[in-house]
Amino acid sequence: MISFLVAHALRFETEESEPVFVRSVPIHDLNTDAIDLAEPIQIEIEHYAQEVISKVLELDLWASESTESEALLAIKKAIHDLWQELKDEPESELGALPRMWKRILGKKIRTRVPA
Fold it and tell me: Which of 73, 15, 20, 86 is nearest to 63 (CA)?
């Protein structure tokens, strides 16, 4: 009986570790009135049996939700939150990765000027 459970658990782990469907999509806004994207950000979407994961590999960000729409909204929020954390930090106080993320986002994000 134990070997059956172990085999079943291993089978389940293997099934969940491989995405059923993967695609790459550009996003053109971050779902906020405060900032615009000067250029699209490429998002990788991975569909698994029980979840959808959205990733921005270059920024080391990911979000997991039950639908693709929710995963896209979550990654947009993660990008926005990362920018809010980094935008006012002096580069001299950032490590190598956060400094790179700030440079990448600094090229892609524009603050909206209120009308």
Answer: 73
**pLDDT value of position 88:** 94
Angle between helices 68-86 and 96-108 (to 10 degrees): 110
Identify the pLDDT of residue 19.
78
- Locate the domains of the chain by residue range: 19-111
Confidence class for position 16, pLDDT limits 50, 70, 90: low
Residue pair 70/52 in contact (Cβ under 8 Å)? The answer is yes
* pTM confidence score: 0.81
Which letter does DSSP use for residue 33 in this model?
S
Sheet holding 61-65, edge to edge: 21-27, 41-47, 52-56, 61-65
Which residue is it, tokens 């806004």? Answer: 29
